[in-house]
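Late entry, written up from scratch paper. The run itself happened at the end of the previous shift, but nothing got recorded in the book at the time, so transcribing now.
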Amino acid sequence: MRAKKVTMGIKSVREGLKDFSDTFKALQQGKHVKPQPEGIYFTDFEAFRKVMTPQRFALLKMIREKHPDSISGLAEMSARNIKNVSDDVKALVNLGLVEISQSGKNKAPHLRYEKITVELAI
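Output as recorded:
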């Protein structure tokens, strides 16, 4: 079942380790720890920018609107080279934003979330 939304943002390694440490300490003390919402975090804005390119955002939108039944179908819809689209879809799968279902030889991309919220602290 698809989750409704995911948050993407910038979180330093120090912040991520502190969150983990706080949670671990609370669990060791037998405290109840509230599950945190799903999130995808990058160490800095440059890392975010390299991964979330305009082409990948366009593919996410195309998958949402057109529901392609294959990677090659998505490449045709986007008027892009299939290898480049395939590489971008793999990157989106690795991020956890897209999942693939296989039907015969076709690998169809599907969104895992209905909404992506991007948080940028100044």
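Strands lie at 3-10, 39-42, 98-103, 106-111, 113-119.
(Scratch paper discarded after transcription.)
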